């Protein structure tokens, strides 16, 4: 169960760190790196709307991260949250990063995120399997 506890904590911190990067005061200075070829006026309506929209994504990541850390204190009863984080890493992570590459975003950065999401998926599945094995061992009669 320790593997799952630490998986919840590490993935929670990663989500909080990534979520914070989408908050407007951290996102605005790196906007032109985030969206190569940004062609709307800095400070204009499109610029502000994009920052506002991406803030929502950041808040989602912050909330998920907080819940994952909370789940680390109750790993046996929080396994469904691990499945949610894994599913989000598949869909909002790997599949979205592949879409971003196809749309022309920097390949290196997207491959790094694909590697991060793949690590979250694989280690999450291993942690869930280890916790399942640990539960079965404890439940088995002596």
From TrEMBL:
Pfam families named among the record's database cross-references: BphX
Domain of life: Bacteria
Keyword Membrane among record annotations: yes
Stretches that traverse the bilayer: 7-26, 46-73, 80-101, 107-128
Keyword vocabulary terms for this entry: Membrane, Transmembrane, Transmembrane helix
Protein's UniProt keywords contain Ribosomal protein: no
InterPro entries recorded: BphX
Protein name, per record: BphX-like protein
Species lineage: Bacteria, Bacillati, Actinomycetota, Actinomycetes, Micrococcales
């Amino acid at each position: 169960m320790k593997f799952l506890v630490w998986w919840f904590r590490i993935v929670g911190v990663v989500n909080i760190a990534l979520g914070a990067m989408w908050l407007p005061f951290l996102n605005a200075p790196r906007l032109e790196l985030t969206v190569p070829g940004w062609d709307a006026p800095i400070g204009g309506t499109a610029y502000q709307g994009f920052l506002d929209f991406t803030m929502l994504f950041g808040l989602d990541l912050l909330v998920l991260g907080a819940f994952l850390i909370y789940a680390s204190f109750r790993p046996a009863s929080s396994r469904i949250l691990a499945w949610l984080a894994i599913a989000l890493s598949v869909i909002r992570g790997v599949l979205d990063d592949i879409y971003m590459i196809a749309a022309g975003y920097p390949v290196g950065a997207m491959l790094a995120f694909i590697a991060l999401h793949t690590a979250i998926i694989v280690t999450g599945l291993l942690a869930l399997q280890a916790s399942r094995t640990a539960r079965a061992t404890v439940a088995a009669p002596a």
